[in-house]
Write a structure and sequence with these properties.
This protein has about 260 residues and is mostly helical. Helices cover about 80% and strands about 0% of the residues. The longest helix is centred in the N-terminal third of the chain and has 60 residues, at about 1-60.
């Protein structure tokens, strides 16, 4: 009888323990079920909060599609539109400082303004060039694998009175990270043509090798003509020699020069 009593007691204890564990498990699952909606709500709010700055930044730039397009194509942009876009991009970059494209376009806008008819003097040009340089520096820090970031940084350094020899490293990195990107090689070309005497032979040679390829892409021909007209005699002679590898191309180029 004592054995039976002990067995019964053990069974009751085991049953109570199992029941207690089942209740605890149910409570645990119920707690998790109640917590899930709260966690989902917190996560949703966090995502919205994180997205708001980017949404606000892009909304700020919506009225400036024409400016952004002109920066890409090289089309003329009125000075007052550039000024308005400059303010908008400064605001957008403040909302989303980690967005590389905002810094790139800010640098391009400041460069355009420094060279536009609306620029009001040497001091303003200097400040705009410094602004472009600062924006390009942000751009390259955020996108070190983007060849155009290095090319633009090199160009803005030269605008701010660096010599071509001072930016060889940046130009090498630009070519290394974007060896076949036209926007990168065109920066090399412009630097070489407009600063021929001060440009290292390495950059000159790379630039002149690309001349025929530039000419064959028709939308670039106006840029080739304007760059040629800005360049000195030695740069023009090198350009004509490179383009003269195709005599018909050189003749067409001369006709384009004459036609204005």
């Amino acid at each position: 009888p004592r054995q039976n009593t002990g067995t019964a007691t053990a069974a009751i204890t085991t049953g109570n323990t199992a029941a207690t564990m089942s209740i605890d498990a149910n409570r645990k699952h119920a707690g998790i079920a109640r917590a899930l909606p709260l966690l989902a709500t917190i996560l949703g709010v966090a995502l919205v909060v994180l997205a708001v700055p980017r949404v606000m930044a892009h909304a700020t730039l919506l009225p400036f599609g024409d400016v952004r397009s002109g920066l890409v194509t090289g089309r003329h942009i009125l000075a007052h539109r550039l000024d308005e876009a400059r303010s908008a991009f400064l605001t957008a970059a403040a909302w989303a400082p980690g967005e590389p494209s905002f810094w790139r376009e800010q640098a391009l806008i400041a460069r355009r303004l420094a060279r536009s008819d609306g620029a009001s003097g040497d001091k303003r040009d200097y400040l705009l060039n410094e602004e472009a340089l600062a924006a390009a520096r942000h751009y390259v820090r955020l996108s070190p694998g983007d060849g155009y970031a290095w090319a633009l940084f090199a160009q803005t350094r030269i605008d701010a009175d660096a010599r071509p020899a001072d930016v060889v490293q940046e130009l090498r990195l630009a070519r290394l990270t974007a060896p076949s990107r036209a926007s990168v090689s065109l920066v090399h070309f412009r630097i070489a043509m407009l600063h021929w005497k001060d440009t290292p032979d390495e950059i000159r040679e790379i630039s002149m090798r690309e001349v025929l390829a530039y000419w064959r892409y028709r939308p670039l021909r106006p840029l080739l003509v304007s760059t040629y007209l800005e360049a000195d005699y030695a740069a023009r002679a090198a350009f004509r020699e490179a383009l003269g590898a195709d005599p018909r191309a050189l003749k067409r180029f001369d006709r384009l020069l004459i036609s204005g």
